[in-house]
Structures are given as C-alpha cells and as structure tokens.
Please model this.
Amino acid sequence: MTDRVAMYLQDAHEIREGMKLAQYAEKHNFEAVWQAESRLVRDAIVPMAAFAAVTERIKIGSGVINNWTRNIGLLAATYLTLDDLAPDRIICGIGAWWDPLASNVGIKRRKPLKAMRETIEVMRRLLNMETVTYEGEFHQVKGIKLDVVHGRQEPRNVPLMIGATGPKMMEMTGEICDGAVLNYCVPPEYNKPALEALERGAAKAGRTLDDIDRPQLIVCSVDNDKAKALDGARWLLTQYIAQQPHITKASNTPQEVVDKIQSILGWPATKEQIKDAMKYVPDELVQRITASGTPEEVKAQVRKYVANGCTSPILYPLGDPYLMIEVFSDGYS
Model:
C-alpha cells in the first residue's frame, strides 16, 4: 500500500465491535486506528489497550486525550504500559480540551499554550526514561522516573502529537512535537495556514515541515446512496456546530447556520433536537468539510486533504465502517 490511511473510532460502536474493526483495518493494510476521548462518554485508554491486544502490526493512537485531567506521572506511566502491550505501536495524541465541557467539570483552562508545552516537555523526558525534576507553573515534579523493575527499561518510542486547531497551538506543535493531529470538520484549504504555522514552529527548533507528521481526522460518510451518506454526516455536523465553537470557527460555518442550530440544541442534545436542527445544515457545507458521498466522491475529497498537506487521513466512519475500510483498502489514489 502506497497511501497511508487510518481509522478513527469514537463511541458509536461497542468496544468489542471496535476490536473487530481494528482487526479488519489491519487486515486491509490500514496504518493505524485512533480512539477518541472527547465528550464524557468513553475513555480512550481502555479501548486502545483492547485494540492493541487483538492486533499485531497496526498502530494505536489516542485522538485525543486532554492534558488537564491526568497527573503527568500517571500520564507517562499509562503510555509506557500501552507500549509494553504493543511495543513501538502506540501514539500519544493530546489536546487542550474545550469549553464548556472543561469548565463544566471544574477545569479552568488558563494559559493553554504554556500548560501544553510543560506537559510535552515532562512527558517526553519521562518516556525517555530520565529522572525528572521540573518546576513549572502547571507541573512540579521532584526526582521522578518511570521506575521499571521488571520488563523493558529502554526509552520508549511513543510519538507525541498535539491535536492543535488554532494558529498559536499549531506553531508550538511544529516546535516541540513529533506531529500534529489536524482537526476534522474543516475544509481542505484550512490546512494551508495550519501548515504555515507548523513550519514557523519547526524552524524555531531547526527543523522543516517534512520533520512534522500531519495525520488528519476526516469525517467519512460513504454509501452508494449519496443522500444517505450526506445525512449520516449531517447528523454529526449538527452537534459539532452547536457545541464546539473552535471547530465551528475553523470550518467557517456561516453564523446564521450556527445561530439557528444553537437555538434548537440543548446540552447534551437529544436525538429529537438533532433531527430538528439537521435541516439547517446544507449539502454544500457537508460536502465542503467532510468526505461524504459515493465511494469515488469520498476518495476524491480525501485526496484534496492530502494535496493540502495531510500525511495520513484518519477516517471517522459514519454508516458502514466495514464498507469504508474496504473502499480505502488500497489507499485513496
């Protein structure tokens, strides 16, 4: 397979079904399976371990955990444990979370850039099996290390990638990380300023853009019935437009669409509210910020993201996930 391609799972499938999907994706030469951790519905770590346990080659990534709710020592130990289960197959995707969810659970997301920088710095050193003393604003540790007594004691090869959306976070990602997990529900041309920011950051560290991996989440609703495929993506977009303002801004969704949807949806949204609000999300928007439609239309849209700098599409299957895997079993050429 010449085209890198990965799969993204949230909570639409039972975990045991996700395990079967991970195996099916591996069988069809997918590079990775990424597990979400966004709403208060499913932790990423347990499914990641489950996927790793039933596969042999495919990489397993978090897409993405947040940097606020796990102590840095526990965070590093968690990824060391996952790497023990699937050596050299684990990817740490981490993000700055979002409001109102963070504030609703008592997290004040102040100075998100500094907080993330500290997390990456300490995490990298711990996974490198160093003894770490660090006096930061968000992390203060004294002489700690991943104290492996039984098992592998060598530094762990766990790429650290930030799920960045805004330009400042993107620039910092280019400076300090192995890669950026580019967001979904954005048009392909969103990638141009994102890559410019990554490149600025990479230059600060004496690197180039080619040194920064750029996997990208892409909503993928594929069906031989185009209308059915578009409605599958529309259901998801309706919720994101109402509830995640950072993605709404990045997608350039018209404000009148946002206002109409937000006037209908509550928190959390009911199925009835979503169905009522869906009619305000036009086909044009669905096709512009997702890969939705027939198999050939979906592949063509994914190629646009790749042409705009995505190095590995991470496809979020809406509809039949097995069909999506089969469609992309030979990449997207």
About this structure: The chain has a mean pLDDT of 95. Residues 225-290 form one domain. The chain has 14 helices and twelve strands.
